[in-house]
Amino acid sequence: MINNHKSVRWRRIFVCFLFFLSISMTLSAQEIVTVTGTVTNAETGKPIEWVSVYDKDRAYSSTYTDKAGNYNINIPLGKAVVFARHWYYGMIYTVDSIHYNVALKPLPKGVQQEMDRRARKGGSQ
To answer: Which N-terminal residues, if any, form the signal peptide (predicted)?
Structure first.
């Protein structure tokens, strides 16, 4: 009976080992690339500062654009990267390249004014 108990225990340990090995191989198989580019206003062509750039799952990294609208982010190929900024429609791309220039379209002025009004009131009434 004791030998059978030890055998079951070692099989469980072996199965756990294989599980963790497969997970580590899957994670290491994802090629992480540095994606770069510039984010601009789709209507004016001017760069947009402080655009949030992050992977959709929020598992890898995130960054913001600089004053010239430039960004770089390390993310695995095939993952979705999000570009989001207050007063603009967001964009999502699936990473299959290492360079994306993104043009964000501004929200209509009425929507922007309503967002500002609600922010000043401290809520979303």
So the answer is: 1-29
